[in-house]
Amino acid sequence: MAGEEEFYVRYYSGHKGRYGHEFLEFEFRSDGLCRYANNSNYRNDSLIKKEMYVSSAVIEELKRIIADSEVMKEDDSQWPTKNVVGSQEIEIRLGNEHISFETSKLSSLVEVQESKDPEGLRAFYYLVQDLKAFVFSLISLHFKIKPIN
Predict the structure, then answer these.
(1) pLDDT single digits (tens) 108-143
(2) 3-state SS of 122-147?
(3) Contact in structure between 126 and 144 (CB atoms under 8 Å)
(4) Strands (E), the chain
(5) Can you tell me the distance from the alpha carbon of 113 to that of 60, in angstroms, rounded to the nearest whole number?
(6) Distance between CA 112 and CA 122 in Å, rounded?
(7) Bridge partner list, 49
(8) Predicted TM-score (pTM) above 0.85
């Protein structure tokens, strides 16, 4: 649409291990397309892929969540790097602003507090928690399934 603010968000969390490449990934585009993928080979689970279109109100709420997190002001240069446990990535385009961060998987706030940039990593950590809850709610409402078995 003409005059529409550019918007894109993609989140990835995954690792390669005993059960192959296991990951969770989702993305939202400004046209409302939401893509979700969850691959787990544990107990012979298979790849779950879902696509749906969400309303402009959902996109506006996503933008609000991201703006409120203030993650766009952060810098990942002091964050833990990916390791054998895995990695997390987030890419966000919000208007003229663009960020792309990568860090290790974070299992607790203790890891955040002990990092070289606890304030910035905390913004990322809580944003990821909010986005995952948001996506899982949308999926369970839209598809009437549990996004994680």
Answers:
(1) 899 999 999 999 999 999 999 999 999 999 998 888
(2) HHHHHHHHHHHHHHHHHHHHHHCCCC
(3) no
(4) 7-17, 20-29, 33-39, 48-53, 87-94, 97-104
(5) 31
(6) 6
(7) 37
(8) yes
